[in-house]
Structures are given as structure tokens and as C-alpha cells.
Amino acid sequence: MSSRISARISAISESATLAVDAKAKAMKAAGRPVIGFGAGEPDFPTPGYIVEAAVEAAHDPRFHKYTPAGGLPELKQAIADKTLRDSGYQVDASRVLVTNGGKQAVYQAFATLLDPGDEVLVVAPYWTTYPEAIKLAGGVQVDVVTDETTGYLASVEQLEAARTERTKVLLFVSPSNPTGAVYPREQVEAIGRWAAGHGLWVVTDEIYEHLVYGETEFTSIATAVPELGDKVVILNGVAKTYAMTGWRVGWLIGPSDVVKAATNLQSHATSNVCNVAQVAALAAVKGDLSAVARMREAFDRRRRTMVRMLNEIPGVVCPEPQGAFYVYPSVKALLGKELRGRRPQTSAELAELILEEAEVAVVPGEAFGTPGYFRLSYALGDDDLVEGVSRLQKLLSEAV
Q: For the chain, what is the mean pLDDT?
């Protein structure tokens, strides 16, 4: 008998980060004082001027109807203008596709570029959605594993060692989810020149471009390495920068043939993105970055607090992230130790114990391709952050 669910869809795993967040919220709803470090979601409300633009759009009959599948023309132009302003990359509005959040941009990029068996180089730790999107598109993921000793940055030598004649795409992510790693300009240039020299496509996810701290600077590989020419695809969106995770507006920027093909796919998959959300995104990308600066200041403060407190826990090693809003500490030294009558052997088992005993939700490294680590988001209120890490300190200090 044939399976009720296709093999293609059966192979897809649930989003681990959303699963952890859902479990934490369910426990809170049941009355338990759970603190969740799972979801990558700013705790700030969407800025008021963006919300007001959406309210006005909801009253405009123009936005009650279908609009072009590839996005409102004025939003596509604003995204092109914003891209030039923020990263120095000049692109015509016709090479922009507005998508239903960043995840749709990720999937459609791989679906458009990959044939069955094509290989994609993916630096691990990686965001949980990349493997599933690559798999669904028929591609083969090839991991390039990094760790805390290099600040979770991959070298050209590592990438070259992983390249084969089937390699078609390099997935380049900086700032990184889950590690917060940010590649310095010279390393971005070296990796980009290497990719261009081997004729590889580069898909670069730049959704955390504005969330960098201290003296760290964001460098777009598309701008830094013009030799990539028309073999670079940029993924981005409003979710993280403007605290708009629920509005579901992302975009894909690429060469004309790729954008046309991805737009054809979207025209059958979803048609246009919600018009009201598109108008809200238009207000966001056309506005200044003052609201972003205020959020970044809070994230920076929380980042330093979390790193300091985690590194006070025996057996935890937490590098200081330079971007995004995550830390990715190693907990390998705690595995196998006795804790509350149990001996967790994996970071997944340890995360489950922590949720049960300390009522703190973290995402284990298994979800990101590197067991032995946790991802914690510091995009939550200061008091909750300190309380949650204090619970971790108290619990994990008992490990023997």
C-alpha cells in the first residue's frame, strides 16, 4: 500500500525553534512560569508609523483586490532603494520579488536554482529551515562544520575541501542565525572571490544586516565581490529589523531570469503577498533607521549580560556574538554529568531536562547541525533574560 503522505513531504522536519517556542507557550498557558529563549523574535512592538500605514491601507479599496504576484511596484522600488542605501548594491526594481516572509524567499531561491542532486555548501551551525528548503527543492546539503574556536566562521580552505563537481550553490549567512557570527570584510571578499572563481552561485541571507554590535560592520558579499556578477541571490525581509515577524514580508533579489522564474512559482503557490502587510513594509523600508537603532541598543545590552552570565556557569563556553540576537554556547562539558538524578548524554536531552526542572526553554544544537550546543535568543525583556539565565546558573551548577 502506498503511504498516505508523499515521501517528499514526509522527509521534512518540523521547525525545531517553533516547536520549542510552542511547547514553552503551552506550559505558560498551563500556569507554569516558563521563560523562553527559543524563538528569534524581537520583544518590541512594530513601530507605530508602520502600523498606521497598514491601517490606512486597510481602508483603501485598491488593496482589497489582487495585485501583481511579484509585489507592489512601489514596494519593489523602495526595496531597491533601501538596498542601495544600506549595502551599496544597485539593482533595478524588476529584479526584486516580494515574498510571504523570508522563509518563502529561501525556499523559492533553492527551488529556482537547484535540480535533483545539485549540492549546496552550508556552513554549520545553520538555521533550521535551510536544510528542509534545500531538500524540498531536490538539492543535497553538504555541511561545512565550524565551532567556537573559530568564532563559527568558515574558511576558504574548509569550503574548498567540501566542494565537488556537483557543487552549485554556496549559502552565505552573515550575521548568522544561530551563532551571531559576522564575517569581517576581508573574509567576505576572500570567500566571494573563491565562489566566483569556481563559477558557483551564492545565495546570501542578509536579514540581520542591521543587527551588528560594537565596531563590527556588516558587509554584503554582493557588493564586496562584484566578480560574482549575475550569480548572486540576496534574501532579506522586514521581520527582524523592524520587529515585524508576524507581518510576513520578505524579498528575493537576483538576476532577471531567476526572479522571473521565482515569480512564476509564486504566482501559482500564493499569488501576491497580503497588500496591507506590503504597505506596512513599504513604510518600514522607506523610513529612517531610528527605531532600529533603539532596538539594537537594547539587544546589545542584553547580549553582553547573557554572555557574561553564561560564561559564569562551569562547563559552559559562550563566545561573544557580533550580530543578530542569539548566543550559541557549548555545553559539551556538561554532557554525561549527573544532574537531578539524570545523566543527559546529548544537548537535546539536557535541554529537555532544563525545561522540566528550571522551566527555561532553549533550543539544542541538534536542530542546527551541531550537537553539544544551545541556541538562546536575547530578544526578550531584560528582567526575563536575567531571571532565565539565573535559573540556568542555579540548575547547571549542580552538575557533577
A: 95
Q: Which residues contact 241 (CB under 8 A, 6 or more apart)?
A: 207, 209, 210, 211, 284, 292
Cis peptide before 175 (omega within 30 of 0): yes
pLDDT tens-digit map of 54-83: 999 999 999 999 999 999 999 999 999 999
Between CA 318 and CA 315 the distance in angstroms is: 10
106, 130 contact by CB (below 8 A): yes
3-state SS of 364-397?
Answer: EHHHHCCCCEEEEECCCCHHHHHHHHHHHHHHHC
Is 41 a residue whose pLDDT tops 90?
A: no
User: What single-letter DSSP state applies at residue 94?
Assistant: G
Amino acid at 236: N
How does pLDDT run across 241-284, given as a tens digit for each residue? Answer: 999 999 999 999 999 999 999 999 999 999 999 999 999 999 99
Q: 211-242 as b/e, with b when 16 or more CB fall inside 10 Å?
A: bbbeeeebbbbbbbbeebeebbbbbbbbbbbb
> What is the three-class DSSP state of 70?
coil
Residues 148 and 128: beta-carbon distance below 8 Å: no
Question: pLDDT over 90 for what percent of the chain?
Answer: 90
Element housing 136 (H / E): helix 129-136
Grid coordinates in use for 239? 521581520
Identify the H or E element spanning 253: strand 250-253
